[in-house]
Amino acid sequence: MILTVLGAVDDVMMGNVLTHEHILVDFIGAAAYDPARWNRDDVIKRVLPYLHEVRRLGCQTFVDCTPQYVGRDVLLLQELSRLSGLHIVTNTGYYGGSDPKFLPPPAFVETESQLAARWIREWDCGIENTAIRPGFIKISVNGGPLSELSRKLVRAAALSHLQTGLTIVSHTGPAVGALEQIGLLREAGVSPSAFIWVHAQRETDWNRFGEATRLGAWVSLDGVDDANVELYVAMLSRLKAERCLHRVLLSHDAGWYEPGLANGGDFRGYATLFSRLIPALGRENFSMEEIVKLTQDNPREAFSIHLRQQGIESP
Which of 6, 156, 226, 304 would disulfide-bridge 112, Cβ 3.0–4.6 Å? Predict the structure, then answer.
């Protein structure tokens, strides 16, 4: 199954999936963070047309990767799910290895076990006094080699996975940090198949993509926009030639309603993958089976909730 903001859904119902997007983000930092900085009705008015658009294009599941203290608002996501007809998935975890200003004070002083207990509590009891539960774990790390703070967040995510079966989605970038995280997870007894290397497109050495997929990890190419469709076709063609498409995820990392900016700022929609990238892949002789693998099969396997231990995976 997957867990959406409206409850559990059989993973066969996910359909076409956008695996890394955002509705709202607030970069003010954890010290000044306050949900009163935005009005949900204003956000809905601004964002809902973009969700309707991508729903018409065939998207059925929308993974919102905005973490706690950066704009996660699960009641907002729940209402947008009802209004748009999209399955929307939210997260637990802390975002801060790449910029500590987004971390609350406990992240600096608590152990990985204590941090994991916080995240597991959201899985067990719901997020922020609601019945809404997370569908994955979202963390971030520095570019690598990993700082001790980043390593602690990774270890906390590993402990959380072993208690919940939730996939670990890590804002990473260059391969050095991704491969170090894979090593830490394996040391903790977590299979790399529970790990998504986020923003992998920022790695310039495309050989590293294959290295990560052969270890079993997921490679997320999540910066699709109108200006880089040809680049994504080239990356995917390379991965196809290396027989690695079965571990690849695609998305835009788009949206980004920002509190404090007029009308939420320069909001970017979610249509390019469906309106431009998929047709471009078809012109490059990607089969329908390969396209379905990228947009449906891989996301379903990546986000389906089950325990993935090193050497042993439960169904």
Answer: 156
Q: Where are the domains of the chain?
A: 2-313
Condensed to tens digits (0 to 9), the pLDDT of residues 211-238 reads: 999 999 999 999 999 999 999 999 999 9
Which of 249-267 are b and which e, b meaning 16 or more Cβ less than 10 Å from the residue's Cβ? bbbbbbbbbbbeeeebeeb
Q: What are phi and psi for residue 220, nearest 5 degrees? A: -100, 110
Chain centre distance of CA 130: 21
* 170 three-state secondary structure: strand
C-alpha–C-alpha distance, residues 246 and 283, integer Å? 20
* Average confidence (pLDDT) over 114-130: 98
Fold of 2-313: TIM Barrel (3.20.20)
Q: Are 159 and 194 in contact (CB under 8 A)?
A: no
The Cα 50–Cα 271 span in angstroms is 8
- Give yes or no for a cis peptide into 106 (omega within 30° of 0): no
User: Is residue 283 predicted with pLDDT exceeding 80?
Assistant: yes
Q: Which residues contact 41 (CB under 8 A, 6 or more apart)?
A: none
